[in-house]
Amino acid sequence: MNNFKLARDGLYIWMEKQRKPKEISDIMWVEKYRPTRLDQIINQKEIVKGLENLLKKPNELPHLLFTGSAGTGKTTTALCLARKILGENWKRDTLELNASDERGIKMVRERVKEFASIMKLSINQDTDDKPFKIILLDEADEMTSEAQTALRRIIEDSSKTTRFIFICNYLSHIIEPIQSRCVIFRFSRVSEDEIVEYLKNICKSEGVKVEENALHKIYEHTNGDLRYSINILQAAAASGNVNVQQVQSAIGISGRSKIAEIVNLAINSKFNESRIKLLELLNVYGVSETDFLRYANEEIYKLELENPFEVSTIIAEYDYRLANGAHPEIQLAAFLAQLGKLNLKNNKKSI
Ligand SMILES: Nc1ncnc2c1ncn2[C@@H]1O[C@H](COP(=O)(O)OP(=O)(O)OP(=O)(O)O)[C@@H](O)[C@H]1O
Ligand SMILES: [Mg+2]
Questions:
Q1: Ligand 1, from 24, 72, 189: best to mutate by most atoms within 8 Å of Cβ?
Q2: How big is the CA angle at 181 (ends 177 and 187), to the nearest 5 degrees?
Q3: What SS3 state is found at 347?
């Protein structure tokens, strides 16, 4: 009987282990290989040096603003910095907000203000030896300018107890008064050598055989976006060793090339097909609406149109609508319909 019980309990324990979901950091290489220390950040040497200098006097750390293109290490650097300043309880003492999820004035008032004032209390009570708490506002360029304006006041009110790190892709979307309250760091696209080296190291630790050409092919496609490069590498490695052919098919199924397909369908007035693929991209592949518009913009310019003014105006208009919180699926479908109306297929430059 006892033996039976042991075997049964053993089985339950085994089943429990099997059922335990894998952590996202085990599954996705971008998370698994996300640096946790500043000295592991690649390609941004000047920035890391500058930050380490500022950290020599942590009490005097200014507010920071990280700007630059996607997948270059902005969020990662901010998280490394929070870890370094706040130590083991860094998560408790950091408010990480993704501004584009909760756009607008409400988010600013409620979440930021609440966190900043709670922290003020705990610091006043001398319960903490850390110099301040950190509010990390990712994708701050997606915030409305009203929300940014409201932040000015909050930054000032809470600056004794709180440091802000703003992160954005487009510095021009951040209002001047916020820019002037921060030290600005510009992140550059990761160089080809650094990307290839980084991907090689991942392959080494994953025990994946890789052809060097394949890594250069990845760079050609991703143009200095390390996140996208790692994602393509992982997709290519899913079928075994990584060679140029596998990279090409991984690129073929990636979200960005689907955007090119959607744009082409829309331009050729195949509205229904393009809309269905758009919905699939947003809901299945999880591409964000602003990324969609950003990459659609790039794809349209690759077409080298004779007269790109009209299409620029349309993109700008939909970008504005999304920034103001209009319903993304409705807006993007309308955007595709507009593309179809423009008769762009007969508008290509004759070379
Ligand atoms: N400079 C870097 N050094 C090391 N790893 C990096 C670097 N840049 C990006 N990565 C890798 O890419 C992933 C995404 O990086 P991160 O989130 O920091 O990009 P980002 O600049 O914030 O991009 P976005 O503008 O799209 O938010 C990280 O998890 C990490 O694996
Ligand atoms: Mg980021």
A1: 72
A2: 100
A3: coil
pLDDT exceeds cutoff 80 at 77: yes
How far away, in angstroms, is 153 Cα from ligand 1 center? 30
β-pairing, 94-98 vs 182-187, is: unpaired
Cβ–ligand 1 contact at 294 (below 6 Å)? no
Name residue 162's beta-bridge partners. Answer: 133
Whether residue 112 has its Cβ less than 6 Å from ligand 1: no
Q: Tell me: the pLDDT tens digits for 269-302?
A: 899 999 988 987 777 666 778 889 988 998 888 8
Asked if residue 150 has its Cβ within 6 Å of ligand 1, the reply is no
- Give the domains, in start order, of the chain with CATH numbers: 33-187 (3.40.50.300), 192-252 (1.10.8.60), 255-346 (1.20.272.10)
Residues 35-59 pLDDT 10s: 999 999 999 999 999 999 999 988 8
**Any alpha helices (H) in the chain, and if so which ranges?**
2-19, 24-27, 29-32, 45-54, 74-86, 105-107, 113-124, 145-158, 176-179, 192-206, 212-222, 226-237, 244-252, 255-267, 271-283, 289-302, 309-323, 328-341
299 C-alpha to ligand 1 centroid (Å):
23
Query: Does ligand 1 lie within 6 Å of residue 67's CB atom?
Result: no
